[in-house]
Amino acid sequence: MPSTRDIRRRIKSVKNTAQITKAMQLVAAAKMKKAQDQASNGRAYAEMLNKILVNLKEHAEEGIHPFFSAGKGDKTLVLLIASDKGLCGALNTNLFKKLLTTQIEGEVEYVTIGKKAVQAINRLRRTLLADFPIKDPAKFPEVRAVSRFIQEKYRTGEYKKVLVVFNNFINTVTVVPSVEQLLPVNPVTLGGKRDFGHDTSASTGPALEYKFEPSAQVVFETVLPQYVNDTVYQMVLESRASEHSSRMVAMKNATDNAKQMIKDLSLEYNKLRQAAITNELLEITTAKMALE
Amino acid sequence: MPLKLEIVTPDARVYSDEVDTVVLPGYEGEMGVLPAHSNLVTTLRPGELRITKAGKTIELAVGEGLVEVTGSITRILTDSALDADKIDEKAAEEAIARAKKTLEELKPGEHQEEVAAAMAAIQRATAHLNFKRKRKTV
After folding, report:
1. How many CB atoms lie within 10 A of CB B104?
2. pLDDT (tens digit, 9 = 90+) per residue, B22-79?
3. pTM metric for this prediction
4. What is the distance in angstroms between the CA of the first residue and the CA of the last residue of chain A?
5. Alpha carbons B76 and A205: distance in angstroms, whole number
6. By the CB < 8 Å criterion, does B11 face chain A?
7. Would the CB atoms of A218 and B27 count as touching at under 8 Å?
8. How far is CA A76 from CA A123, A124, A184, in A?
9. In 3D, which of A205, A213, A43, A225 has the Cα closest to residue B73?
10. Which residues, listed in sequence order, are joined to residue A191 by a DSSP beta bridge?
């Protein structure tokens, strides 16, 4: 049976914890707003670029650009995008589960973004090629370095494809761990749904013959590296938005739980206190009666 | 048949509407697109883009990008699309100065990516300046 003092102490410590989680929740909420805006603003561009290229790929000649066809090698390159910090609920755990349940044939090598991703790859004893630290909020030049590394690797022809494992941001409470194929160029889902508006049918109809100015090679050589940069950047943005949202939600739950706990403990404390008072009164009255 | 035009930048969907014609700075010079243009894909150079809709003309300064033209729809993906009010002359001049300085500091033959980035910055800022100054005199 804990004494009233013990309970008081516990209440105090829970209050302190609640204060910290509350502060973290507010910080995460502020960052979340920015990250969400960034992610949703870039989505239209990334999706349209993806769609145009997927469409062009179907009409382009075989072997016109290495990014359109699978490499000769048998290896797969996986880019794993996770968060730097923890305390964001099951976000990273779910992501790694997704990675583990995804069947990838042949040898797999990893490139990671985020401390949690490196830790996971090391723990799983997988081949880590490179780890890129990316600050928060994510800056394009930093992400470009990652993308360039991947492109160089892919151009060697050792890899048959490049996959990206990341958290797709849908809304504040829903985050979907996803695996998308970055290379060779493939339809990619970013965010909740593929939303191209009403113009979807326009160029997915019967085969369209395109003219290229000045030539298909030049166009693809300019656009494809940009496409990879942009897509990786967008994926990082999605991951960041997911991270901050998850953290906000996790911290909000923690704060709520702490408040509930304070309530329960206070009740117990009051009960104990009252019991003690009743006890004392009883003792006094018994003593008085004994004297009479 | 109307011509649908969409301009998208990484920050936002800048323009999405049906237009009469659009003139854009393509890889091989200025190019006009009318409805039922043959299918074409080209890269966009930094410069000036003119949209005509019901007799009115909208002008935008665009950066590098990609243009996809099909009979019914023209999609323009570019890194920036601004109208004259939003261009800051001073910022553009500073950007040119900064890029030139970077170019001088970099050794020739090395840092190809950085050189290309600086060149692109100069091109873009110059296009912005030209665009803005032209508007002023009119």
Report:
1. 8
2. 999 888 888 888 888 888 888 888 888 888 888 888 888 888 888 988 878 888 998 8
3. 0.83
4. 35
5. 20
6. yes
7. yes
8. 20, 17, 11
9. A205
10. none
